[in-house]
């Protein structure tokens, strides 16, 4: 029975001549292989990476210890535990983003104010306060930075601060899309 993420090994920088059988034969020396797959492109050519799942975590660890950095068909391979993309994003800190959501703004804050405040952290491509049909501020807006580092710095430095009045700003990464924010 395959359990996602259990005793799963990721291999990259594989020579394109290595097929599923060759990969299986290489890794079977370390334990029982439950599944083995080389990633292929639409033409059936190897993409140079693959996955092997063992029945035991210990077998996966031994394969990593013995094969990581080894030459297989004259190419130095990377062998490590497979980590799902979602878990990699969490492990690597926050995913890269440039669009920042700002709420709890004063009714008098303008697009220009937003741009002036946020441009301290890096070049901005846009700064917009959302307004109702009468042009009144809805007290939230969006700032888009040129670089993810600038966006992250703005979130880190401005979230939880206040501007001129007692409202505590929420400044964070914009998640998802803008649907439902137009009303």
Folded structure, characterized:
The chain is α+β, with helices and mostly antiparallel strands and 183 residues long. The protein has five helices and ten strands, in the order βαββαβββαβαββαβ. It has helices at 20-27, 57-67, 85-91, 111-118, 148-158, and strands at 8-12, 33-40, 46-54, 71-72, 75-76, 78-81, 99-103, 124-131, 137-145, 170-173. The strands form three sheets. A four-stranded antiparallel β-sheet has the order 2-3-1-6, covered by helices on one side. The protein has a four-stranded antiparallel β-sheet with strand order 8-9-7-10, covered by helices on one side. The protein has a two-stranded antiparallel sheet with strand order 4-5. Strand 8 (124-131) and strand 9 (137-145) form a beta hairpin. The longest helix is centred in the middle third of the chain and has 11 residues, at 57-67.
């Amino acid at each position: 029975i395959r359990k996602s993420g259990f005793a799963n090994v990721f291999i990259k920088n594989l020579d394109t001549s290595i097929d599923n059988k060759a990969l299986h034969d290489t890794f079977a020396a370390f334990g029982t292989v439950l599944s083995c797959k080389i990633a292929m492109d639409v033409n059936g050519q190897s993409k140079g990476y693959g996955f092997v799942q063992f029945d035991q975590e210990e077998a996966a660890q031994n394969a990593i210890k013995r094969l990581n950095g080894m030459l297989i068909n004259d190419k130095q391979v990377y062998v490590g535990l497979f980590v799902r993309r979602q878990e990699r994003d969490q492990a690597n800190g926050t995913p890269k983003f440039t669009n920042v959501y700002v709420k709890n703004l004063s009714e008098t804050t303008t697009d220009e104010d937003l741009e002036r405040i946020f441009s301290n952290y890096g070049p901005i491509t846009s700064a917009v306060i959302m307004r109702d049909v009468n042009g009144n501020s809805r007290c939230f807006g969006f700032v888009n930075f040129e670089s993810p580092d600038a966006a992250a710095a703005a979130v880190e430095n401005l979230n939880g601060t206040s501007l001129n009045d007692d409202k505590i700003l929420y400044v964070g990464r914009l998640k998802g899309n803008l649907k439902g924010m137009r009303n």
